[in-house]
Amino acid sequence: MGRMHEITRDTAIMTRHVLRIDTSAPDLSFVIPAYNEAETIVETLDRVSRKAGRLVPRSEIIVVDDGSRDGTADLVQAGDWAVPVRLLRLSRNFGKEQAIMAGLRHAAGKAVVILDADLQEPLRYVDAMLQKYREGHEIVYAVRAHRDDESWLKRRGTAAFYRFLNIGSEVPIPAGARDFRLMDRKVVDALCALPETNRFMKGLYAWVGFRTFAIPVELQPRGGGSTKFGFRRLLRLGMTGLTAFTDWPLRMWTGIGMVLASMSILYGLFLAARTLLLGHDLPGWSTLAVAIFFFGGIQVMSIGVLGEYLACVFNEVKGRPGYLIAQDVTIARAPEC
Ligand code: UDP
Ligand code: MG
Questions:
Q1: Within this chain, do residues 121 and 163 fall inside the same structural domain, yes or no?
Q2: Is the pLDDT assigned to residue 268 strictly greater than 80?
Q3: Ligand 1 centroid to 277 CA: how many Å?
Q4: Mutation choice for ligand 1 from 94, 98, 118, CB with most ligand atoms inside 8 A
Q5: Are residues 201 and 70 in the same domain?
Q6: For the chain, what is the domain count?
Q7: How far is the CA of 194 from the centre of ligand 2 (A)?
Q8: Which residue has its alpha carbon closest to ligand 1 atom 23?
């Protein structure tokens, strides 16, 4: 047994020596979530791998294929990239938030950059992020310089969402922040240690704290393909964010109930006094009908809000993992001897 152990150890040392495998952590990991990005993934990886090679001596790229059905994963595997590329293929589409988490959990770098796979985020900003990181900032994130590329409705909707989200939120959650950011290992470890499964990443980045710096970025139009965030997906993400970071929509019903009950008592007293003074007055069915509809509506609405929060509790309690990994491969060039 002891002999075998020795042989294994010697072989390991020899292999490392011969192939000159460096087992220390990479300086930088790039995490790239990709869902049906066959049109842009090759160009993205080409650019990122060349950039990574120029920025730091040791880097890795982690592509999280979030259940693509257009051959994105095959394109990643078929490529010959300048730095090691690890492909995590999720078993189906779990959504960007989960894809990012899968990437963060597998990233080994001393710092991690999250980047989209659609060429919207120019890589020149990574230099600025690294610069700020070296000055001592633990999170350097991209914030949209403007939203001119979005429709009026989307701009107003986003603004309203962040206003609601920030009412009573423990920490301010910035409105224009992107997932595009550089984070120190400490921050990544903190995010990975959080226990919740359903995640609203933009809230969590703010919640973990740390020394943070925002860089305004000018986004490019998509390099190909189309946006994966339609109205329904955005709405679902918004609901996840609201339920994860606020509790005022739950609590406000106590106040509303109290105000309505007080108003009803006052109105009752008024009606009683009027009947005593002026006699019995039968008409008034319209007041009754309006009151019934009004209170009915209020009750259904409050039950609906309760339902939203309960659904989140239900999902968390089930304890299912946020994603499943179907394949984990690293595509690396043979080391030059
Ligand atoms: N994405 C993902 N899973 C999804 C939806 C999106 O991994 O379910 C990835 C997508 O491939 C892209 C990034 O998240 O790399 C941002 O998506 P998109 O560009 O569609 O969002 P937008 O820029 O329009 O907000
Ligand atoms: Mg995009």
A1: yes
A2: yes
A3: 69
A4: 118
A5: yes
A6: 2
A7: 26
A8: 227
Report the separation in Å between the CA atom of 229 and the middle of ligand 2, taken as the mean of its atom positions: 9
Long-range contacts: 259-267, Cβ < 8 Å, 24+?
A: 260/295, 260/298
Residue 266 has pLDDT above 50, yes or no: yes
Residue 225, C-beta contacts closer than 8 angstroms, at least 6 positions apart: 36, 37, 38, 39, 40, 118
Instruction: Please give the average per-residue pLDDT across 88-105, as a whole number.
Output: 96
- The answer to whether the CB of 158 is under 6 A from ligand 1 is no
Please tell me if the CB atom of residue 103 comes closer than 6 angstroms to any atom of ligand 1.
no
Contact assessment for residue 85 and residue 63, using Cβ atoms and an 8 Å cutoff: yes
CB 115 less than 6 A from any atom of ligand 1: no
Q: State if residue 229 touches ligand 1 by the CB under 6 angstroms criterion.
A: yes
Q: Tell whether the model's pLDDT for residue 7 goes beyond 60.
A: no
Asked whether residue 87 falls in the same domain as residue 216, the answer is yes
Minimum CA distance residue for ligand 1 atom 16: 116
- pLDDT one-digit tens code per residue, 164-185: 889 978 899 988 899 999 999 9
How far apart are the CA of 96 and the centre of ligand 1, in A? Answer: 6
Say if residue 193 is in the same domain as residue 268: no
Q: Are 245 and 165 in contact (CB under 8 A)?
A: yes
Q: Considering the domain boundaries, does residue 185 fall inside one?
A: yes
Judge if the beta carbon of residue 44 lies within 6 A of ligand 1. no
Ligand 1 near 97 CB (within 6 A) = no
Ligand 1 neighbour 34 (Cβ under 6 A): yes
Cα of 45 vs its chain's centroid, Å: 21
